[in-house]
Amino acid sequence: MTNTPHTPPRGTAALIVAAGRGTRAGAGLPKQWRPLAGQRVADWTIAAFVAHPDIDHVLVVTHPEDDAFAQSLDVPTVHGGDTRDASVRAGLEALALSGFDKVLIHDVARAGVSKQVISDVIAALDHTDGAAPALAVTDALWHGADQRVTGTQDREGLYRAQTPQGFCFEAILVAHRAHKGGAADDVAVARAANLAVAIVDGHEDNFKITTPDDFARMEKVLRHHMDIRLGNGFDVHAFEDGDHVTLCGVDIAHTHALKGHSDADVGMHAVTDAIYGALAEGDIGRHFPPSEMEWKDADSAIFLEHAVTLATQKGYRIGNVDCTLICERPKIGPHASAMMTRMSEIMGLETNQVSIKATTSERLGFTGREEGIAALATATLIKA
Ligand SMILES: Nc1ccn([C@@H]2O[C@H](COP(=O)(O)OP(=O)(O)OP(=O)(O)O)[C@@H](O)[C@H]2O)c(=O)n1
Ligand SMILES: C[C@](O)(CO)[C@H](O)COP(=O)(O)O
Question: What is the ipTM of this complex?
Fold first, then answer.
């Protein structure tokens, strides 16, 4: 299926097959419904696709005996078949009239799938009928029987196949309808229909929970993915002569100005330090020393942008930011909305991820005597 410039893309569906019984995973619930690192295996896998910005729809294929589990999911489900390819076919048929032009087919048991792997498969589909992640085989390979080596196998050109396996929707639907069954995966179905399939980089964390030992290994992967960091920042600037202050990127007329090497935006500095703190990367002074004239009267947005870029480079996104300004005057309430808008613009966030509020110190201390303004901030960073 090709898209002309006049035919806009119709979107990408994720089809997660979860109708297996998990017989190799040992006794107990089917592996996809077992708890792991705080939620069920299936919840982790589904969340990875729901959270992906380029996935427009998620459909899960479940076993008829698992209806109680299926009903607990926040995404639509459809019953699968007796084999993996029958389950994939059932899912594709359920999506057939929905108008998606791409589909990513994924094993529910690969709960460690990353945003990067999903993105790479989707991106490759711009140039090919199909794309799937895989890892080159690095161990020596043998043939064996009765605990004896019966031969050796050249590993050159051999890959370990993973999912999600992505395809142009119509092409893989036609291929599955034509296939006689018994395929190991959807790449085999695609190849039988002469579709071209590109290999993209897989990841060791994207392994399939198959045997009992795999649960502990996957738990480690998922706990690593759950990396959430918290940072705090605190800053103070004294008043000096002047006619306005800059707070959280907004200029406010006032009887005094704030004194500082840069624009003395005490709120923005506290937020910036909270982000550096969450990254264990020191504070503004370390990245922009006050001894350097370059930062004299600088717009503090430069500092905040730097902290956000550093977070992105280290693989984190900002979850939310909360800042409290401590002063008797100026009154912050009338400007809070403009501050949240400006701060969210600089950080590339939605406005509901940024909170700016204020308190007085009941006329106590240096803020109470109106000698300056203090600011306190918290930021959460989430491993992307
Ligand atoms: N009839 C089937 C068989 C498998 N699957 C899914 O296909 C993937 C293949 O992984 P596999 O490890 O083979 O899963 P199971 O079939 O559940 O495991 P086992 O072979 O150990 O029973 C899993 O996500 C599984 O839920 C499916 O949807 N329908
Ligand atoms: C599709 C698959 O995950 C590719 O590696 C795999 O073939 C399915 O699992 P199974 O253990 O072969 O049933």
Answer: 0.94
Structural domains in the chain, sorted by start: 12-225 (3.90.550.10), 228-383 (3.30.1330.50)
Q: Does 98 count as an annotated binding residue?
A: no
Ligand nearest to the CA of 183: 2
CA distances (Å), origin 334, targets 65, 201, 329, 337, 340: 57, 51, 12, 7, 12
> pLDDT tens digits for 1-29?
444 444 555 899 999 999 999 999 998 99
Q: Which residue's CA is the closest to the ligand 1 atom numbered 9? A: 107
Indicate the helix (H) or strand (E) that contains 343: helix 333-347
Q: Which amino acid is at 173?
A: L
pLDDT in tens, 161-201: 999 999 999 999 999 999 999 999 999 999 999 999 999 99
Ligand 1 centre from 22 Cα, in Å?
Answer: 6
Tokens of 100: 């998606």
* Spatial contact of 73 and 60, defined as CB atoms under 8 Å apart: yes
Distance 139 CA to ligand 2 centre (A): 19
> Would you say 284 is a known binding-site residue?
yes
Please give the Cα distance from 97 to 173 (Å, whole number): 11
Strand partners, 239: 258
- For residues 282 and 233, what is the distance between their CA atoms, to the nearest angstrom? 10
Distance between CA 294 and CA 282 in Å, rounded?
A: 20
Per-residue tokens: 377: 């901030």
Is 173:91 a contact under the CB 8 Å cutoff?
Answer: no
Q: In 3D, which of 243, 253, 347 has the Cα closest to residue 300?
A: 347
Q: How far apart are CA 327 and CA 325, in angstroms?
A: 6
> Quick check: helix, strand or coil at residue 242?
coil
CA distance 231 to 41: 30
Q: Are 296 and 261 in contact (CB under 8 A)?
A: yes
Are 323 and 271 within 8 A, CB to CB?
yes
- Are the C-beta atoms of 232 and 274 separated by less than 8 Å? yes
Cα(251) to ligand 2 centroid in Å equals 59
